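Budget justification, computational time. The allocation requested in the original proposal was used primarily to generate structure tokens for proteins on the priority list. As evidence of use, we reproduce two of the resulting records. The first is shown immediately below.
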Amino acid sequence: MGVARTGPGGRRESEQQRLDRLWGELLREVRVALAGVQLLFAFLLAVAFTPLFPSLGDADRAMYVACLLLGAAATGVLIAPVGIHRVVTGRGLKYEAARWGSRLALAGLVMLLGMVALAVLLVLRSVAAIGDTTALVMAAVLVVGLMLCWLVPAAVMRHGGGPAHESRHDRKRPSPRG
């Protein structure tokens, strides 16, 4: 099974165990994101059949179409890791599948962010009857807030900020040979 190594958090796992863990974590994350995308996408599909839809102006219809297409794309991109897994299972490509799955999940989250922003902007412009500038500012604040929640903590952790980074470098690392 290979030599166990110390992983994140002092975890001892082989490379295969690490890949299995990462793949499982990725699929759980995708399930969460996909549920949100599908729920919003279903509501967007239903909007076209409401009495209010014919009264939308050209700009609002264009935003609706862009939002709908982002939803369809996000759904497809977030489902893609499952398709990849099905096709490459048993072929020794778990590392590559995990890398592609991770990239696709991130792309799906970016599409979800755009979809949420457009949906909120569309509702604020059309239903809330507030001014275009106010609606745009509110949607922009939402996007910035979501980016702060979704991306900034990960970027800070990845580039070595915070207490985990400091303690990681303060403690003595075991030799890879044991």
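The second record produced under the same allocation is shown here.
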Amino acid sequence: MSISSYPQMTFSQLEIFLLVAKHQSFSNAAKQLGISQSAVSHAIKSLEHFWRVQLFSREQNNVVLTEIGQQLRIHAQEILNTAQVMQQQVAATHGLQQGTLRIGSFGASASIHLLPELLQAFRTEYPQIEVFVEEGTDDEVTQWILNQQVDVGFAVLPNHKLDTFPLIKDIFIALIPNSYPIAQMSQVDITQLKHYPFILTKAGSQTHIEKLLKQYDIQPKIQYQLSQLLTILNMVNQHEGISIVADMAMTPELLALHPNVVKRPLLPNTQREIGLAVRNQKLISPATRAFIELAQTMFYY
């Protein structure tokens, strides 16, 4: 059978398929696209007829991908990504900068310190490119890049799963209640933390802080595990314990709102490097390349 004799599979059907998989809901996919739920159902049924497989099963109130549906989702995403790159490359040939850019960001360091200034500059230079941002942990962002849910994302380096572009170095600091004796020191020996109640972040830095504690054989007295930076600050401000966070996440404005909190660098000095990452730098779109080049111009140390 020749290719032309196969039934047609459209980009619109693939987009609907991916949205239903993402939201686990026909109605939510329909709302995002601004079409009827019956149109979504028809598109999925057409794909299932075309492929002669069941893409989704219903479990309680959710619509869940079947095993074959999970496999086909990856290929559907690749098809749409390739089509988008082709469209952007053709537009660039005609002197046009347009398309979409999906960015993955994690934690306060990237989302507060780096991303707002970078997005402002990018939108000024490329106003026709539509930008979408998703936030998660650094591990989630890595997985989104690998699954092609985002085009580019911030990452803690090194990251051997991805092609990376270094941007900036940061250090970890201790947040300490000013009533603790250790707050009087200009630097905090990390081994001293085992003597105090500890507040562990569950946000983007959790994995790296846990590795740091393990490296120095520290088993802190963990009182709380919190995911929101403001909650951590409030708990330290209430003299509930010490926490370790990334320095870039701790702005002077935030500290000013918590007068009982002091920040101190750790001894030994503990750095991390943050950059941008893509799945394969040889296959990135013009919009992704422009974003990376602008970021390196603005932040590369």
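A brief technical remark on that second record: The chain has three domains: 3-76, 78-163+274-299, 168-272.
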